[in-house]
Design a protein that fits this description.
Elements: E1 9-10, E2 13-14, E3 28-31, H1 32-35, E4 36-46, E5 49-59, E6 73-75, E7 80-86, E8 89-94, E9 119-122, E10 126-127, E11 133-136, E12 139-142, H2 150-153, E13 156-162, E14 167-174, E15 185-191, H3 203-206, H4 217-222, E16 226-231, H5 234-240, H6 252-267, E17 270-280, H7 282-293, E18 300-304, E19 321-326, H8 330-345, E20 350-355, H9 361-372, E21 378-383, H10 388-395, H11 399-406
Parallel strand pairs: 3-11, 15-16, 15-17, 17-18, 18-19, 19-21, 20-21
Antiparallel strand pairs: 1-2, 4-5, 5-8, 6-9, 7-8, 9-12, 10-11, 13-14, 14-16
Helix pairs in contact: 9-11
Length: about 400
């Protein structure tokens, strides 16, 4: 405990020295597990995925504000930046800075790269407002499971069966507000990295903003569109193989994704001249393979941190592409150099830009505008330093890149 009264326990009772006005016998020592009556959490979708912004601990009695400090609590994997006391409630404010600047510890395909719950430990003692009760520390409690953000709930979860192979996978669809059959909408199809190749519902929408940012009010006010976020479940991967092959062939999974796009075009009012592919890592490679084998499918591609070399980069020479990588992602950075060299050898103009992901919005937009002003069909943006997940946590928030994508037409 910092900057507050100290309470001493000796010979099974509290001495009067700890309290100047109260007899020791009137002070009750209650373990925190009995004193904390409720735990709640506020969460939201950040650039690096779903995580908590605040945790509230509700005690049995009104608390003495001066008896509570940051040092009285610990949360595994998170930093507490502030503590607030409101009557019976202690509110722990958490640091929500992007945690992906350094490589995250994703050890297996079962690890979801976003939070679902937190473990909170009270390490110190806090007292009631009249100092007659002490809630002692060394007690841990788990928050309830997070609720899904509103933007995620605006997507409907569906499944698609490719009849020829029997392959089935999940996808999430967002339809614009006041969707009508009166006109055709652009389609954005988002394919994530392999870390959300999971059976957990809507995981593709909780990892970051790659799938959801296109459905925000800000984006829909400028670029009203239908959004699809593909999720390739682990069970499907085990039964039918990976979504992307090493040789750049159309896997069963990609055949099914192509069939989904065709099915969507039949059942929704989609402008076939404005189908946009957005993907990161696995998703970027999946879109390159789709575009190589179906050159008339996409009006524009946003490829974020691809991890494999294009099998036939010359087939992509006629595509409108924005390629975004980080220097610190050595695989993606080297692939970007190889593929852009191939395109330039084939006579394709490529615009290059380099800036820091930590730059403010004005600086980033300026760098993007300088690239776009070159009017090249292919743009290659590079973040200084960084790493693979950091690339995709930063790219989608750059308005100029999103605007560039929607300006592309077949």
């Amino acid at each position: 405990m910092k900057n507050r009264s100290k309470y001493l326990l000796a010979a099974a009772f509290l001495t009067a020295a700890a309290f100047s006005t109260l007899p020791a016998a009137s002070v009750k020592l209650i373990p925190a597990n009995e004193g904390i009556e409720n735990v709640s959490v506020e969460s939201d979708l950040f650039v690096d995925g779903l995580k908590a912004s605040k945790v509230k601990l509700s005690y049995a009695k009104k608390l003495h504000k001066d008896s509570v400090s940051i040092d009285d609590y610990r949360i595994e994997g998170r930093v507490i930046t502030d503590v607030q006391v409101d009557g019976k409630d202690v509110i722990l404010v958490l640091d929500c800075a992007n945690k992906l600047k350094n490589d995250p510890n994703w050890n297996s395909m079962d690890d979801l790269p976003y939070e679902t719950q937190l473990t909170v430990t009270q390490t110190g003692d806090v007292s009631s407002s009249n100092e007659k009760t002490i809630f002692s520390g060394s007690y841990s409690v788990t928050t309830p499971a997070y609720t899904r953000p509103a933007i995620v709930e605006q997507f409907s979860e569906k499944s698609f069966l490719e009849n020829r192979t029997g392959l089935k996978f999940r996808y999430n669809i967002y339809l614009p507000e006041k969707y009508t059959s009166g006109w055709n909408y652009p389609l954005v199809i988002f394919i994530p990295d392999e870390h959300v190749n999971t059976d957990t519902g809507k995981a593709v929408l909780l990892q970051g903003q790659g799938g959801t940012i296109w459905a925000t009010k800000q984006e829909q006010s400028k670029h009203k569109c239908i959004v699809i976020a593909v999720q390739y479940p682990l069970a499907t991967q085990q039964a039918f193989g990976p979504l992307v092959s090493d040789d750049g062939s159309m896997t069963k999974g990609l055949v099914a994704v192509k069939a989904l796009i065709e099915d969507l075009c039949k059942n929704y009012r989609i402008d076939k001249s404005r189908i946009y592919g957005v993907g990161q890592a696995q998703g970027a490679n999946a879109l390159m393979t789709l575009a190589e084998n179906n050159p008339d499918l996409f009006a524009g591609l946003l490829l974020v941190a691809p991890q494999k070399q294009s099998a036939a980069p010359e087939k992509l020479a006629g595509q409108k592409i924005w390629l975004q990588v980080s220097e610190g992602d050595h695989t993606a950075f080297s692939r970007a150099n190889l593929i852009t060299d191939t395109w330039e050898t084939a006579g394709v103009r490529v615009a290059y830009g380099k800036w820091r992901a930590e730059d403010d919005a004005r600086q980033q937009e300026s760098a993007v505008s300088a690239m776009i002003s070159q009017k090249a069909p292919v743009n290659c943006g590079v973040f200084e330093g960084g790493n693979r997940p950091y690339t995709w946590s930063q790219t989608y928030g750059i308005e100029g890149i999103r605007d560039w994508l929607f300006r592309q037409h077949k």
